[in-house]
Amino acid sequence: MKKTERATEIHARLSRRYPEPEPALHWSDPWQLLVATALSAQCTDERVNKVTPIFFEKWPTIADAAGADVMEVEEVVRSTGFFRNKARNIKAAATRIMEVYSGEVPRSMAELITLGGVARKTASIVLANAFGINEGIAVDTHVKRLAFRMGLTAKTDPVQIEKDLMPLYPREQWGDINHYLVFFGREVCPARKPKCDICELNDICPKKGVK
DNA sequence: CTCCCGATAT
DNA sequence: ATATCAGGAG
Questions:
Q1: What is the distance in angstroms measured between the alpha-carbon CA of A117 and the sugar C1' of C9?
Q2: d(CA A113, CA A127)
Q3: Å from A72 (CA) to B2 (C1')?
Q4: How far apart are the first and last CA of chain A?
Q5: pTM score > 0.90 for this model?
Q6: Tell me: the pLDDT tens digits for A106-160?
């Protein structure tokens, strides 16, 4: 089977498995999604969802976050790991949004990645889910692993993987394909023990039975 | 390439 | 004890 056919088939089958894609992160506006995604680096979304309600109760608005005491933010986000970087980045991002973007989360890749701690992955998530804009495909640990196992890329660098994936899908599917690969990766094809015996992509998987 | 870093599963 | 979890920066 050709790579393009396999890519299309993966989307078709997973779109049936996940009829209504929604991020597992809890959020109610673009800023909240930005913060939640920033906190999700090397951390489970479940853990992030325990932290964000406390964060947004303490600092409800972007202006509040911009004026927050970094040490207090560190305490709140500590359990998500990398807490010093994350606390500093969130405050810096909030400050820049207030000063440069009139207090509104910017709606383009070019602008979003000027915020500290925000690169293509986080920007793509915010653009796709909060604004319905598909400027890129978010490549996180799950997309990286699934794209490799399903033979959609041979690269290891997320930027290169994104370039391999983009031509395989029409732009309007870019947000969904991320969601599908993340959820399917979590539920069926995790890093350690892939469940090849119950996998509905088994027949088109180049690495079935292989680690 | 290294460093940031806590929580959880194996 | 070690690998992994919705990464990003120097």
A1: 8
A2: 11
A3: 28
A4: 21
A5: yes
A6: 999 999 999 999 999 999 999 999 999 999 999 999 999 999 999 999 999 999 9
* CA–CA separation, A95 and A82 (whole Å): 20
Sorted by where each starts, the structural domains of chain A and their CATH numbers stand as: 3-21+137-204 (1.10.1670.10), 30-131 (1.10.340.30)
d(CA A39, CA A69): 17
Question: Encoding tokens for residue A112?
Answer: 């979003």
* C-alpha A191: how far from chain center: 17
Instruction: State the pLDDT at residue A209.
Output: 62
Asked if A205 contacts A199 with a C-beta cutoff of 8 angstroms, the reply is yes
pLDDT band at A35 (very low <50, low <70, confident <90, very high): very high
User: Is any atom of nucleic acid chain C found less than 7 Å from the CB of residue A123?
Assistant: yes
- Nucleic strand B under 7 Å from the C-beta of A43: yes
A184/A143 Cα distance (integer angstroms) = 10
Mean pLDDT of chain A: 96
